[in-house]
Design brief:
The protein contains nine helices and five strands. It is an alpha/beta fold. The protein has two domains: about 120 residues, Rossmann fold (3-Layer(aba) Sandwich); about 60 residues, Orthogonal Bundle (Arc Repressor Mutant, subunit A), CATH 1.10.10.10. Strand 4, helix 4 and strand 5 form a beta-alpha-beta unit.
C-alpha cells in the first residue's frame, strides 16, 4: 500500500463511523473521517490517493450523488458503498459509476477489509498508469485525446493545425512512452488512468 493512500470514510452516523474507523485502524489503514459527502467534496482534490468508504443514504447528498460529483471534479478514487438497506437499482447504479463493492453495513468485517484492499489496489494501479501519461508532452496529450476519440491522422492534423506526418510522429512517441502498440491499448490505458 502506498504511504500516501488513505481510506476516506464518509458516514453521517457518528457512532457507526467511529466503530468502523477503529476496525480499519486496527487493520493498519490510514484514515480520514467525514460526516457528510459535502465535507468530503470540500476537502478532497484530484491528487487524493486511496479509496472512499461511503454510506449510501445520507442527508444533503446521498452516496450516489457524491460519487457523481467526485467524478465531475476529476477525483478518480475507488468507492466502496455501505448501506443499511440497499436495493438493486442503487447497487447497479453504483457499480456502473465505478464502485469497487456494495456492501450492507452488517457485512462481515473480512468482506469489508477485502473490499478496502481491492479499492486501494485499484487506486495504486490507476496511479501507476497515470504516471505513464506524465511522460507525454502537451502536444502528445492533445494528439492522444483525438486518438481516443477515434479520429484518423488526417482529422487530427486538421483539428490541431499541424501536418499529418507530425501527427504520425506524435503517435509513435505516445505508443513508445506508454509501452503500447495500438490505439485500442491507448484508449484502454487512458480510461484506466481516468483521462477519458
Amino acid at each position: 500500500m502506498n504511504a500516501d493512500a488513505c481510506v476516506h470514510l464518509v458516514d453521517d452516523d457518528a457512532s457507526y463511523r467511529r466503530a468502523l474507523a477503529r476496525l480499519l485502524a486496527a487493520h493498519g489503514f490510514r484514515l480520514h473521517e467525514f460526516a457528510s459527502g459535502t465535507e468530503l467534496l470540500a476537502q478532497l482534490s484530484a491528487s487524493a490517493r486511496g479509496c472512499v468508504i461511503m454510506d449510501l443514504q445520507m442527508p444533503e447528498l446521498d452516496g450516489l450523488e457524491v460519487q457523481e460529483r467526485l467524478v465531475s471534479k476529476g477525483i478518480a478514487l475507488p468507492v466502496v458503498f455501505l448501506t443499511g438497506r440497499g436495493d438493486i437499482p442503487a447497487s447497479v447504479r453504483a457499480m456502473r459509476g465505478g464502485a469497487v463493492d456494495f456492501l450492507e453495513k452488517d457485512a462481515p468485517a473480512d468482506r469489508l477489509i477485502a473490499a478496502v484492499k481491492r479499492g486501494l489496489d485499484a487506486d495504486a494501479a490507476a496511479s501507476a498508469t497515470r504516471q505513464r501519461f506524465e511522460k507525454l508532452s502537451e502536444r502528445e496529450l492533445q494528439v492522444l485525446h483525438q486518438v481516443v476519440r477515434g479520429r484518423m491522422n488526417k482529422q487530427i492534423a486538421a483539428q490541431l493545425g499541424i501536418h499529418e506526418r507530425t501527427v504520425k510522429l506524435h503517435r509513435s512517441a505516445i505508443t513508445a512512452k506508454l509501452g503500447v502498440r495500438s490505439a485500442a491499448q491507448i484508449a484502454t490505458l487512458a480510461r484506466e488512468a481516468g483521462l477519458v
